[in-house]
Amino acid sequence: MTQMQEPVSTETLFGMGLAIQSVTPFQHVTSYVPDRDVAYQFDPKTTEAILAGFVHNKRVLVQGFHGTGKSTHIEQVAARLNWPLVRINLDGQISRLDFLGRDVITLKDGMQVTELVPGILPWAIEHGVALVFDEYDAGRPEIMFILQRLLENNGKLVLIDQNRILEPHPHFRLFATANTLGLGDTLGLYHETNLLNQGQLDRWNIIVQLNYLELSQELKILQARFPSYQEGNNIELGASMIRYAGLTRTAFMAGDISAVMSPRTVLNWAENIEIFGSLKRGLELSFINRCEDLERSLLHEFYQRCFGEEWN
């Protein structure tokens, strides 16, 4: 039986008062528990929704633009609960066999035998692991229908070829992240997404939208990773870098540029500034070089707005 710690206040774990006032983390940290990021900044509403998924066994779907930290948010809640978690990207390469399992030929006592290797879904269900389906709105139809019954409260997994019905472990949890709300790519930003079955979408108990962090929150992340941004003129420099990232996010949502700066990109920028000793060079290597040539004049204009100097 999995051992649990004594109850801990959520204010102690997450640094904020939440509707769920205390939780009981697992006592032991396994290799499947995500690493804890001590500098992580939690969004209160999203944290409450994800925490409800873990504590009350609710299916939680987190929706938002890419770069908002949807999957990372789930991981960091799990890290503080010592909850084992596995992320799966529902790209076009994930098949039904990957999900449910397949027969493989192995050598046993010098003879070839056929053995069933369980897929990730039966394994997670039986071992009490939280699953996170990234890019949920890009999943293939045959994968989505496998999840239909499992998304119900106390849903079970039926393995037809094995004549088995799997009862979920008490600590099995389901989460998903998506760029859209299941209605397709209405903004023209995510061309690989699909329309989601509304009957299945209705089975998600909690749906929460996560937006980009406030400037002050993102600045705290930058300062925690790079303490030099806590002093003197570097405080304003860090704020200007985040304002620049904010302009790219607004432009991306308007369809003016094809890429967006996430909080992770801002951290890469700060690191490249230290390596190359140049604000502009760090920005080029972290972000501008992955944008289209026609977009660069707009990105240079953003630089002039944020830092008060022309891009030469």
Automatic annotation (TrEMBL):
<dbReference type="InterPro" id="IPR011704">
    <property type="entry name" value="ATPase_dyneun-rel_AAA"/>
</dbReference>
<feature type="domain" description="ATPase dynein-related AAA">
    <location>
        <begin position="60"/>
        <end position="182"/>
    </location>
</feature>
<dbReference type="Pfam" id="PF07728">
    <property type="entry name" value="AAA_5"/>
</dbReference>
<keyword id="KW-0547">Nucleotide-binding</keyword>
<keyword id="KW-0067">ATP-binding</keyword>
<protein>
    <submittedName>
        <fullName>MoxR family aerobic cobaltochelatase subunit CobS</fullName>
    </submittedName>
</protein>
<dbReference type="InterPro" id="IPR027417">
    <property type="entry name" value="P-loop_NTPase"/>
</dbReference>
